[in-house]
Amino acid sequence: MIRKLIATGLAVATAGLVASVAGAAGGGPGSQWFFRGACPTIDFVAAHCHAEVVTDAQGVPLASSGPTGYGPAQFHTAYNLPTSSQAATLQTIAIVDAYDAPTIRADLTAYDQAEGIPDLPTCTSPTQQAACFVKVNQGGSTSSLPRSDPGWALEISLDVEVAHAICQNCKIVLVEASNASFGNLGAAENQAAKLGANAISNSYGASESFLVRFYDSYYNHPGVAVVASSGDSGYGVGYPASSQYAVGVGGTSLHTNADGTRASESVWSGAGSGCSAYEPKPSWQNSAATKCSRKAVADVAADADPNTGAAVYDSTPYNGASGWFQVGGTSLASPLIAGTYALAGVYSPYPASLLWASPGSLFDVTTGSNGSCSTAVWCTAGPGWDGPSGLGTPNGTGGF
Highest mean pLDDT: which of 14-28, 31-45, 367-381? Predict the structure, then answer.
């Protein structure tokens, strides 16, 4: 589905206007764009990725020869984040996605060189204890990788590049599930934990259903920040963001000043949120704040609006295009938050509890909505917790 993206409340009237904006050095964050999901929605027994790529009015992805969108400098400045983890030990961020991104190794190098950040060498083995990059299948092998898929390859480029951009001295482990079934994604999740991940980014999901009880154990890894994006269809609960064991990550529209500092931030209208119908409420969630007797989504948020999306390099052709894309969706928010956990390097048995213990350490997002709901706080921003933005967005690592 192609959707029109409105950043300022003024509709883009014609395809010609969109084309003219796109031609102006890629437009950049703050321009008005059309966008579409990179991965198709299947059903409730399989997930789809939450990457939203900027397109023209006909749904053709806009690719360019140089970065368009926010990069490491903007995210670090806006969210007051260091570039390296301050932990005493190596921090490992695992990315769990479906299918193979055949060019991700070269794409990460191209991204790092263009953005002026240290490139990660290739790990000599999946268990090497160094700041490096490695790609494995759901069984932990660097060979016999899944078949490639262009939509998921774009998702993988977003996840890997943003995670490295946020924590530049972290090890990045990409675990590729054989397909997008929750059974295979769950096997990849377990493999990520087995390989020593401190934080696991999950930029995928499906509408919550009664079947969540069959998959929940995959996301139960005490001491690991299991992070999951809340979805891109507005108000409504998605899984695994609703898992009692996951940090549910909502989405915002982040606008910066000329020097990269945070100018304003509001709820992104596409961010998923709500009160789970199935998942028990974690002990650390505040029932009075969430007005929900079960798990409430989200816990925290970060930039997700494609209009203020990230610059992503992907040389695997997507709809016939390759190069630099501008990509958002709560798929962007998930690696931003996973990277922030790795920067902090402090984990409790269930790291979401750290957020609820120190909400004053986050930027509170108080404006915007993602739809209509019976309980206003589940879909409308305000002071304190709300569904689309959770407790807020990173303001340094203090809340993590």
Answer: 367-381
Output DSSP code: residue 41.
-
222: containing domain: 38-50+69-302+329-394
Which amino acid, one-letter code, is at 202? N
Q: Report pLDDT for 213.
A: 85
- Give, in order, the Cα–Cα distances in Å from 118 to each of 166, 167, 198, 375: 12, 11, 21, 46
Residues 6 or more apart whose Cβ sits within 8 Å of residue 258: none
What CATH number does residue 106 fall under? 3.40.50.200
Give how many domains the chain has, as a whole number. 1
pTM: 0.92
CB 357 within 8 A of CB 284: yes
Per-residue pLDDT, averaged over 203-213, amounts to: 92
Residues 6+ apart with CB under 8 A from 288: none
Beta strands across the sheet bearing 2-5: 2-5, 33-37, 52-55, 321-328, 310-318
pLDDT at residue 305 tops 90: yes
Contact call for residues 29 and 69 (beta carbons, < 8 A): yes
Tell me if 218 is assigned to some domain.
Answer: yes
Q: Which residues contact 302 (CB under 8 A, 6 or more apart)?
A: 79, 249, 251, 252, 254, 332, 333, 336, 337, 340, 393, 394
- The β-bridge relationship of strands 225-229 and 247-256 is parallel
- pLDDT at 44 (0 to 100): 57
